[in-house]
Amino acid sequence: MHTSTPVIFDRQALRQHQNRVARSLDDFSFLFEEVGNRLIERLDDVNRAFPTIVDLGSHGGMLSQPLSRRAGTQQVFSTDAAKGMLERGCHQQARILGCDEEALPFAESSLDLVVSSLSLHWVNDLPGTLVQIRRALKPDGLFLAALFGGHTLHELRQCLLEAESEVEGGASPRISPFVDICDMGMLMQRAGFALPVIDCDTIPVTYDSALKLMKDLQGMGESNILIERRQTFSRRETLLRAAERYERMFTNDTGRLTATFQIVWVSGWAPAATQPKALRPGTATHSLAEALGATVCGLDDTTGKG
């Protein structure tokens, strides 16, 4: 990680959280499993073999079996930064590797495929990590990832902010500034990926209470690791006020509370001479945005988080 990169996340705290939850992660892994299954489905649409695969930030090797079963796979590396997650992955069908997503140990042009499912949202230097991934891929190697998007947990973010302001007279950052879909497209282009594709899913999850949601986030190892986070325990009155606001504002027709998880999907290829070439600007007769009914996100767009 470059010294000039702003440090937003406390990576040591992240490892501590992941070590603490590693043994009980099966009780809270439903979202990791759902997004992992969707990632494998997307990968299955790519009709080619990837002999050497890295699962970056694997949550204890959750994807090692489906990746190992793919035709043509020779070696799968399941990486994690936390010791507890590495120990959790020891029984999986992959080579376990301690690896910080901000300092990849792989040689240039050594990998055929890099996947990452709900891990890169905690990286301080995401542009630098993307460049490292692209360099580690062989020509025409594929990068496929899922990250939490900016709309994730917007309900909880709002309720905590308002409750803390009411009870304590001020608010501290509690939920991460997740990546925006338009920003991600720009970052992929700047990292040198060819044929980048960015899209998103929204996964609504319902809960009996906001406190149960907070417990699940803690059990997933997704607690607050912002450098500027409050260093003391939250006041009980603040949490109860946030839970009350959540129930009042975000209860659905069945009486349950809705929590939104936006998943940003990212794919791109390491450049190769055999890849299709883009048309010169202005020569296309129809735009992809028109065909999909999508919103165009230009390189100069500045979209707020959350």
TrEMBL record:
Q: Carries keyword Transferase?
A: yes
Gene Ontology molecular function = S-adenosylmethionine-dependent methyltransferase activity
Start and end residues of each Methyltransferase type domain: 54-144
Which Pfam families does the entry link to? Answer: Methyltransf_11
Q: By its UniProt entry, which Gene3D superfamilies does this protein fall under? A: Vaccinia Virus protein VP39
Record carries keyword Transcription regulation: no
Biological process terms in GO annotation:
methylation
Q: Which PANTHER family match?
A: ARGININE-HYDROXYLASE NDUFAF5, MITOCHONDRIAL
Organism classification: Bacteria, Pseudomonadati, Pseudomonadota, Alphaproteobacteria, Rhodospirillales
What's the domain of life for this entry? Bacteria
- UniProt name for this protein: SAM-dependent methyltransferase
Key words of the record: Methyltransferase, Transferase
